[in-house]
Amino acid sequence: MDTSNRAGGAPSPRSWRTPGFVVACGCLIAMLAFGPRSSMGLFTAPLSEAHGWGRDVFALSIAIQNLVWGIGTPFAGALCDRYGPALVLGISGVLYALGLALMPYADTPLMLHLSSGLLIGLGLAGASFGIVIAGFSRIVPPEKRSWSMGVATAAGSMGQFLFAPTGQAFIAAYGWQTALILFGASMLMIPVLASSFAGAGGSKSAQAVTGADIGFAATIRQAFKHRSYVLLVTGFFVCGFQLAFITTHLPPYLTAAGISPGLASWAMALIGLFNVVGSYMSGVLGGKMSKRLLLCANYTLRGLCTALFILLPVTPVSVILYAAAMGLLWLSTVPPTSGLVVLMFGTRYLGMLYGFAFLSHQVGGFLGVWLGGVLYERVGSYDVVWWASVALAFAAAVVNWPIAEKPAPALAAEAKA
Prior knowledge:
Largest sheet: none
Order of helices and strands: HHHHHHHHHHHHHHHHH
Oligomer: single chain
Structural class: mainly alpha
Shape: globular
Strand content: under 5%
Number of strands: 0
Helix content: over 70%
Radius of gyration: 20 Å
């Protein structure tokens, strides 16, 4: 008798797909998926120089990637809610691998936009930690949900820590083209790991699912009528703007300021390493204190840290300190954001509703990456975007302040944290 897909959708303790094993596999998926994505800035200079393109070409490609990632996430989340995460993660891992492998052969801007923009964006939509978090919500008890969200996000950051210096080493040893192919090959592990989620089924089998079962369309309407959800989605835009801008443009910004490419890659790695701590602690704290206040504190500290960084001279010490500080804050918005979605609407449509919040995040990412490239080519400086990032951080803190931390009124009868 198969005990891996019982009425609760959670794996049986007697199955090899135990909750602990699934969480471990999900963390590895998050690590693999976020690694190459967070290392794209390392390829900005060599790829642009190889083709004689300005940085705005690669920036537009990554901007498209962010936008496709965002647009695709609600659909990937809806498929996850309906059929479970295994299928979504598996297919998306293949798309991700294909996009990375085709990037070295993209000899026109259009081909680059199709590979690094469209294909990788689609792959990320279904293979990133948002889908992993939705899968975890089906197999862990409510009191550990915030913790599991923090663990998944921290695992993604570990991918950034590991892939950034590895990518720079691959570029130095084999060239940027081979480095991308090696990254693509590593993404083929995602479908293998995704099979562990086969016991965490879709909405029909998940007894652990909470929230009103009013259908996808009605849920979307109720969500966007709920003021706190709209505020949450709006604030998440800023997170995307900042992260995408820094991921793509911080390495070339640092090298232009006289910092070695090696230290620039380690700065990205340090962001990932420190965010392992930041995301984990955010998940732990989110289960004990106000998620709204965690978000307000995060955005305020981001604004202060970035303002200090661009006001002070760029030195190895300032780079390391900024990377460490931003690392603690980097993806620490994800556990409280996804936790608030669960609090408002339950877990039944978490994949889809978090997906819409993430779409806002990625629209911000599109603008952060694209504006960074365009303004650099036109004025030779990133200063305008740096200061826009500071202003948006403080604005996000203000936007998150009025959020009501309770179930949405229309779903209050069934929605549970």
